[in-house]
Amino acid sequence: MSGSRMLRLFVGNLPWTVGQRQLVEYFNKFGVVANTKVMFNKETGFSRGYGFVEYRNMESLESCMTQPGHELEGRKLEVLSVTEQQGQRRNRGFQQNQDQYDL
């Protein structure tokens, strides 16, 4: 995707029971999800507690980011926009998280 923009979210604090199907189901509320990935520990097979969601368009990503909070299975998720363009990465957290994280 040289020169193109990837509309990706980092999703942290995932419950260990959440897989890719649950991420798609939840994040499709904000727009069409192009791809998801939950990171798993290769030795144990358990979720590492984070993953990624990629949207097809900016409107979907912005709709998701304007949501004041995200929760799955009773856990508050950490959701950050990760925009990659021409090899450079920029992270942007929710407004309420900006004091908590130095991004």
Automatic annotation (TrEMBL):
Q: Does the keyword Zinc-finger apply?
A: no
Q: Which InterPro entries match?
A: Nucleotide-bd_a/b_plait_sf, RBD_domain_sf, RNA-binding_reg, RRM_dom
In terms of SMART domains, this protein maps to: RRM (SM00360)
Where are the residues of the annotated region Disordered?
A: 83-103
Keyword RNA-binding listed: yes
Ranges of residues in domain RRM: 7-84
Q: Which GO terms describe its cellular component?
A: nucleus
Q: Where is the composition biased (Low complexity)?
A: 85-103
Q: Which residues form a coiled coil?
A: none
Q: Which GO terms describe its molecular function?
A: RNA binding
User: What keywords are assigned to this protein?
Assistant: RNA-binding
UniProt cross-references to Pfam families, sorted A to Z? RRM_1
Its protein name is RRM domain-containing protein
Q: Which organism is it from?
A: Owenia fusiformis (Polychaete worm)
